[in-house]
Design goal:
single chain, mainly alpha
């Protein structure tokens, strides 16, 4: 929900264009819309100047729709990541990020959300042989109670 309606913004900008005075804009706003202490930002110079500058630059005082571009996860970056992963599937994510000049977090997002890979770090452990399993069975108590 917008804090200020477009009509209220227009009145402020029109008053400023006529009088060139922030104080007269503030007075006119309070006269037309009341002295609402909860919404005191209309009395601030900063917001009035911001509305006037927006009107001069765009010809409108409507709230601009904010758009956010996904620059890192562009089709080119995703394709580069896919090719690098096919060439060296055992390379770490951190090393991929260095070679592709992307942040570690961006590479992980591409891998997880776009390519549906789930990177993990391979842990090397000792191999358990049949002899190890025999030793393990020999030390376990048969009655279920722990030996002391």
């Amino acid at each position: 929900m917008e804090r200020w309606s477009v009509q209220q913004r227009i009145i402020c900008v029109e008053q400023f264009v006529l009088s060139k005075s922030i104080v007269s804009v503030q007075r006119e706003f309070r006269r037309k819309f009341g002295d609402d202490r909860q919404r005191g930002a209309a009395r601030s110079r900063k917001i009035i100047v911001q509305w006037v500058r927006q009107w001069r630059e765009t010809g409108s005082v409507q709230v601009k729709a904010r758009t956010r571009r996904n620059t890192v996860r562009s089709p080119e970056s995703i394709q580069h990541e896919r090719i690098a992963l096919e060439r060296s599937p055992r390379r770490s994510v951190r090393r991929h990020s260095q070679l592709l000049n992307l942040s570690d977090r961006s590479v992980r997002r591409i891998l997880h959300h776009v390519l549906h890979f789930h990177p993990y770090k391979l842990q090397i452990v000792q191999e358990l042989t049949a002899a190890h399993k025999a030793l393990l069975v020999r030390f376990l108590p048969t009655d279920g109670a722990h030996a002391r």
